[in-house]
Amino acid sequence: MTQATAEGSADERLARRDPLRRLLVRPEFGALIGAVALFVLFSVTADAFLQTSSFSNVLYSASTFGIMAVGVSLLMIGGEFDLSAGVMVISSALVASLVSFQLTLNVWAGVAISLVVTLALGVLNGVLYVWTRLPSFIVTLATFLMLAGANLGVTKAVTGNVASDSIGDMDGFQSAKGLFASEVGIGGVNVKVTVFWWIGFTAVATWILLRTRAGNWIFAVGGNADSARAVGVPVARTKIALFAGVAFCAWFSGMHLLFAFPAIQSGEGIGNEFFYIICAVIGGCLLTGGYGSAIGAAIGAFIYGMVNQGIVYAGWNPDWFRFFLGAALLAATVLNHVVRRRAER
Amino acid sequence: MTALVKLTGVGKGYGSVIALRDVSLEVGAGEVVCVLGDNGAGKSTLIKIVAGLHRHDTGTYEVDGRPVAFASPRDALDLGIATVYQDLAVVPLMPVWRNFFLGSEKRKGLGRLDVDLMRRTTRDELLAMGIDLRDVDQPIGTLSGGERQCVAIARAVYFGAKVLVLDEPTAALGVKQAGVVLRYIVQARERGLGVVFITHNPHHAYPVGDRFLILNRGRPIGYHAKDEITREELTALMAGGAELEQLAHELQATGTTAAARELNEDARELGITDDD
Amino acid sequence: MRTPTTRGRLLTLTTAALALTAALAGCSSSGGKKAEESTSPAGGGGPRLKIAMVTHSGAGDTFWDIVQKGAKAAAAKDNVQFLYSANPDGGQQAQLVQAAIDQKVDGIVVTLAKPDALKDVLAKAAAAKIPVVSINSGADASARLGALAHFGQDESVAGEAAGQQLAKIGAKKALCVVHEQGNVGLEARCAGAKKTFGGSMQNLYVTGTDMPQVKSAVTAKLQADKGIDGVLTLGAPFAATAVQSAKEAGSTAKIGTFDMNKDLIASIKDGSIQFAVDQQPYLQGYEAVDGLWLYRNNGNVLGGGRPVLTGPAIVTKDNADQIAPFAERGTR
C-alpha cells in the first residue's frame, strides 16, 4: 500500500520539476504578467509613455509606494496588517521637522530622533498586538486614529499652524536631501534617488525572506503561528520586529516627503495604508499571511505607479480617472490570481 | 538496560477531577509502547505529562533512571523527548526543507542560511526513512497527511530525539496514509529510538507495538507485552473499555444489575465480532 | 539655543494648567479662567455670547486653520465664547449643528458645502431662534436656508479672476489641477477659469493627500502634453509641488494658484509662482462671528440678503511684500 502512495505522488513530482511551471508558481509571477500587460497597453495608447523621462516619473511614483510596500508585504507574510502605516509616514516627517525647527538643531538630529520615535511607534504597534491578542487590524486601526489626531494636535500646538514650518534653510538640509530626495542622472534622464532605495530595500527584504533565519520565521509565524511556536520560533518577537520594519519604511518615506516638499500638511497620508496593502496583494501576498514576496510587492507598486500615471499620459477622460484606476487594479489582481491557479493545477 | 522513559504510578488531577490515576509505563531504546484508549480515557493527559507540558501529581517519572519534573516542553526536548502533535506539526505553505529545519535553522557566516545543506539533509533524512521526495521545495501542504506526519517525525529524530511521543499520528489519515506513518514508526524503532504511540485504533497499534497500555476513564485497564496478548484480545479490551463506560451510565440510569450484566455481555460480543 | 526658552515655556504652561485644575477643583465662582476671559478688552462690552462654527473641513487643513484664527480674533474682540467643530460628511455636520442648538448657543456659523444635508437642522435652529450665518461655500443656498448673511468667495467669480490672471501672464493652454475629485467648489473654480481664460484648459485630478502622487501626476501631464504653458492649482501646497513638476518635466509652464500660505508668498516673490487668488479665509471667520455679534447687539445685517464676497484678492509680485508679514503670522 505504501507503493501505491509513492506512485500516486510521482505524477505530481514530475510536473513540479518543469522549470517553467516552477516560475509560474512563484508568488510574484501573476503580478509580473499583469505589469507587462499594462505596460504594453499604455505603450500603445499613450505616446508620451515610452519616453525615458516619463518612465523615470512612473518609477518615482511607484517608488514612493514601493518603499512602504516592502515593509507592509513582510508584515503581511507574517500574517498581520498595519493600518497606521500611511499616517505614520506623516508622523515621522512631522517629528523630524518639528524637532529640527523648534529646537534649531541640525536637520540630521531631527532625522535621527524621528527614526527613534517612528521605530518606537512600530514596536508599540507590535507590543500592543502581542499583549492584547486582538487582531492587528483593530490594534493598528486604533493607533492609526490616534496618530492622525496626534499629527494634527501636536503640530497645531507646537507651530500654531496645521502645516510644519519649512526647514529648507537649516543646517544639514542639503546633505539630507541628497540622501532622501535627490536625483541621479542616468543616460540623460534624472532618476529619483527613491527609485534606487526602493530597489535596494526590496533586494534586502528578499534576501532576508529567502536566505536568513528571520525570513524562515516570518513565513512560519504568518503560515501557522502555533506550529512555529511549537518548534521554538519566537513568534511575538518576530511579529514585533515586522511592525518595526513597517515603521522603518514609514520613517524613510517620511524623510523623503520632508526633504522633497517644502512643508508637511499634518492631515496628509490618510488612506495610503490601503494602497500599500493593495501593492502587496497585487504582488501575490496572501491576505491571510504565510505567502508572498517582496519582489512581488515591488511589482505591485510598479503596477500601481504605472496605472496612476499611465492614465494621465494616455489622456483618458479625467472624470473616469478613478474608474480606470480601479478597473486596472482589478484586472491585474484577477490576472495574477488566474495565472497562479492555473500554474498550481 | 535502563528504560529511557519510565512512569511509575503516575496520577494527575485538575481541581476535583482526577484525569489520570496510577499509570505505569516503560519505554526502552528500540521499543514501541502503544497507549490505547477511547476519547476521554486520559491519553492526552498522559502525553502532556510525558511531553513536559503538565507536571504529574503522584508517582514518579524517570528519564534514563533519573526522576524528573519538567517545567516546560523545552526541558523534555533537552533530554531527548520529542513530542509530535497531531495538528501542530507543520506550516503548510512553507517548503518541506524549511519546515524540517524551522526553529533550528542551519547557518553559515553572516547569518546566511545554509540552504544547500538543509535541502540535502532533508532529502537524505526522508529517504533514510523511506520517503522519496525529489523536490523538497514543494510546500509541505502539498504532501499527503501521512507524509506530513513523517516529516515532523523525521525532524524530531534528526534533532536528537531519543524518545518520540506521537499523538494520534494516524487519527485523521486514510488506510494507505496510516500505513506510511506506521512504517515510519517501525523505521524509528529500528534506529534505536523509543516510541510512545498514542492511538485509539488497535489495528494500528498491534502491528508496530511491543507493549500496550490500555486506558479507560483515567485508569489503566491493561498493560501487556505483545506475546501476552492477541490482536483480538486487544481489540476486545479496547471495545470493552469503551462499553464499560456506557455500562456505568446504564447502571446509573436503571439501577438494575441484571440489565447491566446483559449489556456487558452484548458489548463483549460486539467488540469481538467487530474485529474481522 | 532655543532649548531653554521652550523648556521654560513648557514649565509655565504646566504651572498654568496645574493652577487651572486647582481652581476648577475648588469650584471657584470668581477668578480663574472665566475672570480672565471676561476682562479681555471687549469691543462692545455687551453680554457674553456663545457662537458655534460648524464646517465641512477635514482635519489638518491650513485653510480652515486660518478661518478659525479670524473667528477667534473677532471672538476675542467681541467678548464671544467661540466653539469650533467640523466634519466633512454632510450628515455628521448636521449632527454637530444640532449639538450646537442643544447647547443653546447665541449664533451659529455654518458652511453649506452640502446644503441639503443641513436643511432640516437649520430649520430647527430657526425654530430655536438662533441666528445663522453661512460662510465659504453655499452662497446660492444661504438665503433659502434662512441664513442672515453669507460671507465667502463666489467660486465661479474667483475662477474667472484666476482665468484672467492666467491670460495676463501669457498662457495659451492651461491645466487646472483638482486635488479632490467631486468637490463642487473646486470644479466651479476650474469652470470659471475656463470661461475667462480664452485659451484651452483641461482638468487634471490628483490625490491631494499624497504629495508624491500629485507631483508625478502633474509631471506626467506636462511630459505628455508639451504644449501646456500654464498650470492653475486650487490649493497653496499643490502650487509648490507643481513648480517642482514643471522643472522635472522640462516645462516652462507658468503657475498660478488659489489660496495662500507663507511659503507661497516667498515663491511669488522669487517669481516661481506668478499669482495667488486669495479668498481671505481669515475674513470669512472674522466677519461671520462679528456679523452675528452685530446682529445680536445692534440688529445689523451685512450684505442686504446677498452674499458678501471675501475674495478674490489677487496676490502677485507687486503686492507680495505687503502681505508677507501677515502670511508669516499664519493669518493670510
Explain what this protein looks like in three dimensions.
The complex is a heterotrimer of chains A (345), B (276) and C (332). Chain A has helices spanning 2-17, 19-24, 29-45, 52-77, 85-102, 107-132, 136-159, 173-180, 193-211, 213-223, 225-230, 235-260, 272-282, 294-314, 321-344, and strands at residues 183-186, 189-192. Chain A has a single domain, classed as ABC transporter involved in vitamin B12 uptake, BtuC (Orthogonal Bundle). Chain A is 75% helix and 2% strand. Chain A contains 15 helices and 2 strands. By secondary structure, chain A is mostly helical. Chain B folds into 2 domains: 5-229, P-loop containing nucleotide triphosphate hydrolases (Rossmann fold); 230-276, no CATH class. The model of chain B is unreliable at 270-276 (pLDDT under 50). Chain C has 2 domains: 44-153 and 281-301, Rossmann fold; 155-278 and 316-329, Rossmann fold (3-Layer(aba) Sandwich). Chain C is built from 13 helices and 12 strands. Chain C has helices at 3-25, 32-38, 62-78, 90-102, 115-127, 139-142, 155-168, 184-197, 211-224, 236-249, 262-270, 281-298, 317-329, and strands spanning 49-55, 80-86, 107-111, 132-136, 150-152, 173-178, 200-205, 230-233, 254-258, 275-278, 308-309, 313-316. In chain C, the strands form 2 sheets. A 6-stranded parallel sheet of chain C has the order 2-1-3-4-5-11, sandwiched between helices. Chain C has a 6-stranded mixed sheet with strand order 7-6-8-9-10-12, sandwiched between helices. Chain A binds chain C through residues 46-49, 51, 53-54, 57-58, 60-61, 64, 102-104, 148-149, 151-152, 155-156, 160-163, 166, 190, 256-257, 260-263, 265-272, 305, 308-309, 312-313, 315, 318, 321-322, and chain C through 1-3, 6, 58-62, 64-65, 181, 202-205, 209-213, 215-217, 219-221, 223-225, 237, 240-241, 244, 248-250, 261, 263, 330.
